[in-house]
């Protein structure tokens, strides 16, 4: 039986992943720190605090796997510093909390185009986050780099609404992907036998999701 920690459980991918973990008989316990309360579940321990770092600090029971689905945009965050806090600092902190609790596996949602050397601020921060996690030397680290995510958001993002039709037509790793498919791929990957670091683009994420659904 697995004991997991999920950060970002109220977001687009996180909501889907949390439900999958709740339904999965292989998962015994879910630690899900959030800024606002989640619906009650007997599997889920949900410390809440407006400061997510304080909610994570309340965790003390051991876990073996960390899922991090945190992600925002600069416009949603309100400033560059706020974006870095959400998409770099809190992600790295969630990994450190997981290691403190004994986790040996980390799965994180990044973004297509992530690169620490990118000229684009968003992609550069995502790339720097990935490098920081790799430097932590996880025995098992999965970095998901989906293209545009499809699904219902509580607050719609203008760029996604405008460009979603285009990304549905693009090939390969550029093709838009359902948040549910990303969540399914993360869950399935967590129970696979990989070792080391792996990076999964949209095409691979869809393939993993479809393999699980066909079994």
Please characterize this protein's 3D structure.
This protein has helices at residues 12-23, 52-57, 74-77, 80-100, 121-135, 158-167, 179-190, 202-214; strands spanning 2-7, 27-31, 44-45, 65-68, 105-109, 140-145, 149-150, 177-178, 196-201. With 215 residues, it is of the alpha/beta class. The strands form two sheets. Strands 3-2-1-4-5-6-9 form a seven-stranded parallel sheet, with helices on both faces. Strands 7-8 form a two-stranded parallel sheet. The longest helix has 21 residues, at 80-100. It starts with a strand and ends with a helix. Residues 166-171 have low confidence and may be disordered.
Give me the secondary-structure topology.
Layout: E1 2-7, H1 12-23, E2 27-31, E3 44-45, H2 52-57, E4 65-68, H3 74-77, H4 80-100, E5 105-109, H5 121-135, E6 140-145, E7 149-150, H6 158-167, E8 177-178, H7 179-190, E9 196-201, H8 202-214
Parallel strand pairs: 1-2, 1-4, 2-3, 4-5, 5-6, 6-9, 7-8
Helix pairs in contact: 1-7, 4-5, 7-8
Notable characteristics:
single chain, 215 residues, alpha/beta, 7-stranded parallel beta sheet, two-stranded parallel ribbon, 8 helices
Mean pLDDT: 89
The helix-strand sequence is: EHEEHEHHEHEEHEHEH
DSSP summary: helix tally: 8
Low-pLDDT runs:
166-171
Radius of gyration: 16 Å
Give a quick precis of the structure.
The protein is α/β, with parallel strands linked by helices. 43% of the residues lie in helices and 18% in strands. It is built from eight helices and nine strands.
